[in-house]
Structures are given as structure tokens and as C-alpha cells.
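Dear H.,

Thanks for agreeing to be a second pair of eyes. The structure we're designing against is below in C-alpha cell form, covering all 148 positions.
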């Protein structure tokens, strides 16, 4: 190989390496916005997750206290876009099929976080003492979040 060809090969490799360093940084990792949780024996949480867009996330957990155990389920999780005086459900999800022994979670599909758009999460939580059929139900809404 000639010296000229070798020099161009080295120069090309160096330029490719430099370009790789200047490329856009990797996408930000998923991060929650305004995580809100309630309850001690049965912890219920709603949040918006911004991972290249907006996802509604709801989870429920039996905290496994010494004296009681609960079966849990989350359902009717909605990603809601809030308008002046109105709301639009733009994504829905439900948790695992039926009652879970310790933990359940549901996540809606990812939609773009449009600048100036306001979003909110709504979810229905249910829990019951293990081995029983009577259950408690609670619907919760997250705080509103407006995309920058």
C-alpha cells in the first residue's frame, strides 16, 4: 500500500472516530415525573414516565406486613390529555390478568410529549385480604404535568 493511501486510511479512521464523539448523546433514561404514592400496608402509586415521550404508570404493592397479606390488582390506567375545561383519554392499560399475590403494574403506550400539552394519569386500585373476596377500591389521579 502506498504512503498516500495509508495516510488517507488513517485520516478517514480518525475523522470517523471524531464524528462518533460528536454524535448526539444517548437518549435520556426513563425517568418518572411527580411520583405520587399512598398507603402503608398496600402502597398505590401513579406517575408519568418520560422516556422519549409520555407513559402513564400505575402500580400497587402489598408491603408484606407481619400480620396481614393482601392480594392486589391495578386496572383502568389512563393517560389523559388535559384541555381547558375538558380531558381526552389518549392511552389505556390494565395490569396482569386478575389478582396478584404481591405486586401489579400497568403502563400505557408511549406518546410524544408535545410542547405545551398537559397530561395526567388516572388509575383504579383494588386490594383484599388474602383468601377473602371482599375488596377495597380506590381511584387516583396524578398531578398535572405540562411538557416543556
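And this is the sequence the design step returned. I haven't edited it by hand at all.
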Amino acid at each position: 500500500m502506498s504512503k498516500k493511501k495509508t495516510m488517507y486510511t488513517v485520516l478517514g479512521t480518525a475523522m470517523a472516530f471524531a464524528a462518533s464523539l460528536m454524535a448526539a448523546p444517548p437518549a435520556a433514561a426513563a425517568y418518572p415525573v411527580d411520583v405520587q404514592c399512598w398507603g402503608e400496608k398496600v402502597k398505590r402509586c401513579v406517575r408519568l414516565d418520560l422516556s422519549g415521550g409520555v407513559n402513564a404508570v400505575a402500580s400497587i404493592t402489598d408491603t408484606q406486613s407481619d400480620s396481614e397479606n393482601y392480594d392486589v390488582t391495578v386496572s383502568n390506567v389512563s393517560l389523559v390529555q388535559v384541555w381547558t375545561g375538558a380531558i381526552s383519554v389518549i392511552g389505556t392499560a390494565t395490569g396482569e390478568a386478575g389478582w396478584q399475590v404481591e405486586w401489579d403494574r400497568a403502563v400505557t403506550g408511549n406518546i410524544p410529549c408535545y410542547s405545551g400539552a398537559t397530561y395526567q394519569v388516572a388509575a383504579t386500585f383494588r386490594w383484599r385480604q388474602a383468601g377473602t373476596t371482599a375488596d377495597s377500591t380506590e381511584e387516583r389521579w396524578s398531578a398535572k404535568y405540562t411538557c416543556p
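Two observations from my side: The chain has one helix and nine strands. Helices lie at 3-22.

Warmly,
E.
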